[in-house]
Amino acid sequence: MDKLIIRGGNRLSGTIPISGAKNAALTLIPCALLTEEALTLRNLPRLADIDGFQHLMTQFGVSHTIPGKRPEEFGRNVTLEAMRITSSVAPYDLVRKMRASILVLGPLLARTGEATVSLPGGCAIGNRPIDLHLKVLEAFGAHIELAQGYVKASAPDGGLPGGEFDFPVVSVGATENALMAAVLCKGTSRLVNAAREPEIVDLCNLLTAMGAEIEGVGTSELTIHGVSKLHGATYRVMPDRIEAGSYACAAAITGGEVRLEGAEAGDMGSTLHALRNIGVEIESDKHGINVAANGPLKAHNLTTAPFPGLATDMQAQLMSLLTRAEGTSVLKETIFENRFMHVPELARMGADIETEGRTAIVRGPTRLTGAEVMATDLRASMSLVIAGLAAEGATTVRRLYHLDRGYERLEEKLQLVGADVERVGDD
Ligand code: EPZ
């Protein structure tokens, strides 16, 4: 396992290219199952989770080619083709490695009338049930059975009729599974209290480009008129708003000035609003976002919420930044039950953070010193990298596989803006 060694204190300056969005790509890739024609996705990030999902797709007979390899640039284009689905089983040994695999349930069911997908199990940040995924597919007319750790879903002869579902809790993944099933239903389906994250909009845009008929895109009420077939498409994945927000925090904690090339400010409203309140200067244009932290950082209270609220995926990174802000900040995590695992590691670097249930109280500014720290989940890992960039001395972040799941060529991007960071094999 690799580790990252960061020698803090450098002021970041320069331009970071922002990659395609991991959480959009993970729901765009399974759309290839919805058509027998070729689906070309552009700007896919080179990430472990993306490779893993493409490998899972081969289980169903999906071929993928990488037209025009360009190793020197970030991202890549991939063409996926599911002319014939050879299996509708997503096995445990693949699903357990990547919980987003549950996103093949809806499209497999819609295309073949059946799907057998291993239950994903929990993960570090919470037990992350999939009850809403199953309930919405049942509302569309699917028969769902849980047996031997698998979800077995089947559609009535002739296909899913479609139906209505009002989400009691906003769920990104369940909304995505619902959309990918509804587009091929016999009738019209309606989703109420659907997730509105930009990744959902990206999914709706791709499905529409493939011939789907969806009303209310970008709102929490979606109406989908089922069609009999979808055709192929070529589609560019949206930029990664969480990667961009993470590097904005990295720039800010070092008092730096960084341009996030390709970032889309429209997707990042709540994060940019929080950064401005903390005292970070933000200027956006149609090609990217400029981030500058010239003055002192100010404490600010944050509460995570479904879009357009503050993304839970930004909580850990903003907490690192707030350890260097003047005053006391209160952070409330409302989405997941265990998303403060970065706190004890930040404390070992000198941060003053007290947690009580889903609330964290950060007192600053504290002097951060480098330490050996352990990554536990993707965003917690990034918060440790951010703290390391401002810490005195060297910080060693172990278990980099967490970071490699969500940040394309992280150390290269940080080196582009002057960070003293290197990836070494873990002895
Ligand atoms: C997506 O996860 C993202 N992952 C997560 O990003 C992100 O944190 C999350 O949305 C919230 O924005 C991908 O897109 C691959 P949810 P997802 O269903 O779909 C509860 C990252 O770091 N819930 O919106 O799994 C659930 O327990 C990752 O990139 C149910 O109760 O999230 C949670 O409390 C981490 N039943 C809340 O809803 C269900 O059936 C939100 O979960 C589904 C969810």
From TrEMBL:
Molecular function (GO) terms for this protein are: UDP-N-acetylglucosamine 1-carboxyvinyltransferase activity
Against Pfam families, the record matches this protein to: EPSP_synthase
Look up the record and name the pathway of this protein.
Cell wall biogenesis; peptidoglycan biosynthesis
* Compartment list: Cytoplasm
Enolpyruvate transferase domain location:
7-414
Give the similarity note: Belongs to the EPSP synthase family. MurA subfamily.
- Protein name, please? UDP-N-acetylglucosamine 1-carboxyvinyltransferase
Which species does this protein come from?
Qipengyuania citrea
The gene from which this protein is expressed is murA
